[in-house]
Amino acid sequence: MSVEQEFDSNFRYVMVAARRARQLQAGSQPLVESRSRKACKVAQDEIAAGKVGYVRTDTPVLKPEINAPDIPKFASV
To answer: Is the distance from CB of 18 to CB of 25 less than 8 angstroms?
Structure first.
């Protein structure tokens, strides 16, 4: 695992910015000076300054399969 600064998709950028905005709304201190007081804009300014990154794992998160006789398995037709 490593801390990534470059975003491979707009979706990942939005997810990181939204998570950081929630942290700011919960009381976290901003990492950069910003002209805006809105959490979403401050989060974007922090990302642009290179102060916020994300950790990308190599292994995907898989849902565990439940082996139980009372759960019906449906076959594809």
So the answer is: no
